[in-house]
Fold this sequence. Notes:
It is an enzyme of class 1 (oxidoreductase). The protein has 505 residues and is α/β, with parallel strands linked by helices. The chain has three domains: 194 residues, NAD(P)-binding Rossmann-like Domain (Rossmann fold); 255 residues, N-(1-d-carboxylethyl)-l-norvaline Dehydrogenase, domain 2 (Orthogonal Bundle), CATH 1.10.1040.10; 45 residues, 6-Phosphogluconate Dehydrogenase, domain 3 (Single alpha-helices involved in coiled-coils or other helix-helix interfaces, Up-down Bundle). The chain has 19 helices and ten strands. Helix 1 packs parallel to helix 6, helix 8 packs across helix 11 and helix 14 packs across helix 18. The structure holds 6-phosphogluconic acid. The site of 6-phosphogluconic acid has 13 residues, from helix 8 and helix 11.
Amino acid sequence: QLCDIGFIGLGVMGKNLTLNLADNGYRIACFDLDQSKVDAILAQDRQEAGSEEVRIHGCRSYTELLAKLKKPHLVILSVPAGEPVDHVCNHLIDAGIGADDIVVDTGNSLWTDSVAREAHYKGKFIFFSTAVSGGEVGARFGPSLMPSGDPYAWTRIKPVWEAIAAKVDADSGKPIESHVPGKPVREGEPCATYIGPVGAGHYVKMVHNGIEYADMQLICEAYHIMRAGLGMQPAEIAETFRQWNQGVLNSYLIEISAEVLDKLDEETGQPLVDLILDRAGQKGTGLWTAVSALQVGSPAQTITQAVFARSISSLKAERLVAADALSGPEAPVLSGQEKDQAVQNLHDALYCSKICAYAQGFQLMAMASKEQGWKLDFAQIAKIWRAGCIIRAVFLQSITQAYEQNDSLANLLLDPFFASQIKSFQGNWRKAVADATLMGIPCAAMSSALNYYDSYRCAVLPANLLQGQRDYFGAHTFERTDKSPGRKFHIEWSQPGQPQVAIKK
Ligand code: 6PG
């Protein structure tokens, strides 16, 4: 019996996606350059499915993989982004893949690479892309999927992705979860929706990761202020996060942060977090989001600050020198009541900052969508982020509703619900940022979110002076508020050697 799907790349994500596909009734032919990974998944499949049923078939070459598949072939790749994707595509061409066959890239590829690949492989096979979020557990039991590319290919892939995706209860917007091998969730709304032409899905996933960076950094700043400013122990902060997880901040990232803070080191018995080196890594998607925001001209300072926060964290040796050389304020000693209030302020600051980070991400997608002609559907995007992905949160249900009520919403901050939320909580947000600043504890993402909010709601920014400066030294021209829009002016600001004299009326 021929297989339904070919799967190439059996790293953590690939292996788990393959098992998820098998749980959903697909017969898979799989291949990895590392044969031990093929052997490992076959062993795991035997264990999980029982010895009778063979759901996954191992292959030793690309040619064998194609020979084991039904026609037209559907081949899914889970290989590292970049050159490895083309390496596999070229091997598939050599192995005889045909023009009607579909190859789906599920890695964290740069969206422009996906656009180039669709054009490059045209006529050889149909290149389709699907960005995947959810880490290993998501891949195994239900990821959030962001497919994009050829609409015909989508009709073939749709049932597959809808089967393996995370599911959400349509009424409450809450995830329906099962982590039992062989027992996938079949009811509920799948977290998989067609995003648009090729590239759009990976762009949306890239912005998801930018938001993920901001979300993580904001939580880390709240932790830092509690730890270094309020003198709280990791277990106490974990408990605070667990309480926060009961309300508007309920999210996967808050939940796992509490678990990380609670973990004790087996060797020393100390909180493990205190022993983890404070130098953050990054694979690139947050940076790509920041670069894209700069290129498109969409203000996304909280996301960008989150990337810079990782950069400054990596300067560990320099920071150690600077910690001795440079001065700052002493952290004040707070009464119990003051501390409780400071924790409440942080809660509200985190919530308001989070709204701003998402507003920035959605604004960036809107600008890119316009530029690329993608016609992104933001209610659908928010919907498929409600479960399965790393930024899953109850909050995404409110974003879904905001875009369902107004699909041309210019900015999430203008949605009546979010506007009223910030109106209620901004006092404490401002206090949290001010207190951190006075204590000398960095809160770059939180304060940049506040600055984003204050800039966005500012009717007159000092860009008038900036335009004057530009015209002064570079004759760059300026528009006037009292003349028709678009009309450009330039004046001689000063005679050489003479100061400008204010004209009195
Ligand atoms: C996801 C994650 C996943 C991964 C990224 C970010 O949505 O499942 O975003 O794609 O965690 O690679 O990794 P870095 O923090 O290393 O950039």
